[in-house]
Amino acid sequence: MEQNFEALRKEFPVLQRKTYLNSGSYCALANEVRAAFEAYMEDRLLVGANWDVWVTKNESVRKLTATLLNASPDEIAVTASVSAGLNALASALNFTGARNKVVVSDFEFPTNAQIWHAQEPRGARVVHVPRAADGYIPAEMFEKAIDEQTQLVAITHVCFRNGAKLDIPGIVRLARAKGAKVLLDCYQSVGSLDIDVKALDVDFAAGGMLKYLLGTAGIGFLYVRDAFVKSLVPTNSGWFAQENIAAMDITANRPSPTARRFEAGTPAVVNSYAGEAGLKLLLEVGTPAIEKRVYSLTRRCMQRLEEIGWPSITPVQDERRGATVAVPSRDSAQLCAELMKRDIVTSYRDDNARASFHFYNNEDDVEAFIAAMTQLRGKLAP
Length: 382
Ligand SMILES: Cc1ncc(COP(=O)(O)O)c(C=O)c1O
Description:
Number of helices: 13
Strand order of the largest sheet: 2-8-7-6-5-3-4
Oligomer: single chain
Bound molecules: pyridoxal-5'-phosphate
Structural class: alpha/beta
Radius of gyration: 21 Å
């Protein structure tokens, strides 16, 4: 079914006031997600203790996330953040044997490097794969780093700094050839690209609901491939990670037989109301249609930037790009501030302003951005 994207824009009030190009930091808030927050408040004010509903909300987030990723609900832990999921996973890995190496790339979000470095006292060796001369990291660059001592290749899908997308199938092939597992940090792609963890053949995937999943901060997920759920026992645990949450047994740790064993304590209840609403809306629109639209908008944005003589540093090829277009500036903070004065919401990392696109953006947003960039070029282009 063809989506009516223009009609969907009306569901995001901020779009009536701003050119919103900031979904890679956090999404525009949909009316339905706001209503979910309000439903939580109603429950708290008028029902008081609503434990049964709370539990169903968290389970609903688990199921919707599984649908989104083409996983089974038993392979999904609902976490408080990507960092919480990665810490639980790291705690279940053993780095004392010969396979003690963790391979990360230069494109990682800090948390997906820091957490692996934090395992060094436990025996982990962290190896970084650098960029090639053109700034990209092709799969071949991983060839030297991934070997028989590699336990885990922990890589981002799309780089938060420059919008570059790694060649996940190519890197997974290299990891498989050496018997290493693969963790995909898909926070910068999930919801904007169509992701199938089975087709990608990754072992773990982590993301959160704040960005393209239309939800909020404080809730995320960790996918753990079925084959590893039972063999990995996190030492980072808690009562919500137990087989029977209601058992209240203080004599032993009895982890859930599902990926819930990677959870910890009381879920962020209000966040699961918002997370559920965001995921439902996203799945109604459908990630294949979203991906197509995002590529068409980023392609157009990059072409227009070329035309005005201020090219982006994001790779041009679709297979090397996600939803973010990064534009270098001699002062990226000032560039974002100037854009904000013109009601254009972007963000910046390093020397680049980042314009990130979702299905609720349109060609007029691209043109508004380009018009502002044309005005600012003399002062702020590199
Ligand atoms: C790619 C990526 N990974 C991880 C994170 C951090 O996630 P969390 O704060 O949920 O731990 C971010 C946040 O921006 C991100 O972009």
